[in-house]
Amino acid sequence: MSVAPADAFARAGELTGAERQALLRAARESIAAATAIRATVSRSGRSERIRPTQPRSSPSPPCRVTKAPRCSARAPVGAGSAGRRAWKCAAIEDGRFEPVAEAELHQLSIEVSALSPLEPIRPEDVEVGRHGLLIGHGGRRGVLLPQVPQEQGWDRETFLVHTCRKAGLPDDAWKKPGAEILGFTADVFRE
Is the full-model pTM beyond 0.70? Predict the structure, then answer.
């Protein structure tokens, strides 16, 4: 396996202002549609929990949906219908948070992180605040965005440990033979 040096990571393809606005608009519209469906289902007396059809562990570009004063919810986002599905997951199906209600839409702040391609990276080359990580081992994978360790005040090793935890792996799984450590950068933009 070849490992890219830290300086080989190009920033995620910089998007034009129009492309950024289109992605933000698509995220907001998808979330609005999902909350409207959820409200309709709730009023009909059926179960409010809508099951996701796509796993959330995809290492596709993530979208962060925040509503003050709650913590952030992050979900993977791809292109087209996969992206719309993931935005819905972030807003109403993330079990860590209460689902966003229709009445709360005006309080949401949407942030998109467009990711560079994933590249193998050595643990010693991980730069906090520059790289995001995907760590995999034994069929489990966890992803954390570049901004997470900065927000949490983590150093490099703590970042590696928490990415393992996100995958449901032991804290030191990143040190084990066969562990997959991939890095990426992100072009982050928000409303």
Answer: no
